[in-house]
Amino acid sequence: MPHLLRYFAWFQKGATHDFFPGFSAQVRRTMGTPLGVLVATLFVAIVCGLFLHPRIFTLSGGIAFVLAAGICWPWIVVRGNRTRIFFEQPRAMEGEAVAILARTTNHLPIPSWGLALREGNEKRDRSLSVRFGGIPSRIQAESRWVFRPTIRGVYPRSPLYLSTGFPFGIWEPRRLASCDSPLLVWPQTFPVGPVPVMDGEDVIDGNVTRNKVGTMGDVVGLRPYRRGDSPRRVHWAQSARHDRLIVCELHSNSRPVVLLVLDADPTIHTLGPNGSREWSIRILASLAKGWLETGAQVGTVWSGFVCPPASGSVQLLRIMDGLARLPDSGQLPLSEVLRTGVGRVATGVRIGITTDEGHVRLASHSAGIRWAVLRRNEFQEPDLERASFPSCGEGPIRNAPRPWIEFDGPERVPHALRYGWSEARHGS
After folding, report:
1. Which top CATH class is 84-186?
2. In DSSP terms, which residues pair with 60 in a beta bridge?
3. What is the pLDDT of residues 267-304, one digit of tens each?
4. Does domain 257-426 have CATH number 3.40.50?
């Protein structure tokens, strides 16, 4: 009896094991479509007509006609139409409504029905897919619709194709649609606090007044004279009243310098629109945009991209366009980027953005860098079961310095960016 059970288990295992998975997948892709089913039905009808009765050839002829019409008609329609896509603005931000114009020209002497615009990788994003109505013969038709990109990038993120399955839907040939001007979608940004103050006066002279004591600008207060103060700053009326020298304290007329370093290595991040990688990009974009608007000089560094510190709207365009074009893969670890020295292209405040896993790995490269750390277990897609990623160490991070700021989830990012450090809570 045990031998029979063993043989039965072997037979069951052999009967359910896929010995040729590649061939099986190809068969499923072919036979699992209406075209594959009709081809198999035609073959069976022809065999039955040869061996059973000639009248079955009538059924074979009907199936052959359906196949011919379902293949030739869509192919002719797709070849006779051409579509061009236009984005009505060159740049947008995540979640912003963007208008799209599609011009489809029908070169055929017959109307075209069932046309649709589809993306080559619909599992990635279907936001640009749309169905057109009927297009009369020899006419150029325009279609306009609005979509909201959910993630930054260069759109279309995959090739767009014009396709149709009319009249029977058994096969959908496609033709590449042209897009003359792609859309750059910037990461979403949030309001941020002031630039953190670094030790010393390591700044660039400029015309931006900060709420900090310096040697130029407007008067912010009075204090007793100290050796070395300029006689021009003595407040003679107050000095005569108090019978001692009183000097004026002035604003610091300076331009702070910030270098933002992004750890874009996918191996230390969770992926997806709500993953830690995209949120680290949004954090860097928020800091860069907020501080550039206050007059600071901001530079950015990540794998394959170095933008020296500068100020102004052109610098903002350069940084945001670089973030929009940042690929989803192929990024070197940040330790390699810092080892080459590109992380030291400027003086000033240096802020690195990484996850708790990356923070541990970068412990030996943390000199002079303030780390903004994302807890990657808290940044995952909401429709997925929350996973627990392994950590490089047990308990708190022991080999890395204390983070400058921590982010415990997407819902906490706006508040942390606005009030997460001392200058943001109490002012510069």
Report:
1. mainly beta
2. none
3. 999 988 999 999 999 999 999 999 999 989 999 999 88
4. yes
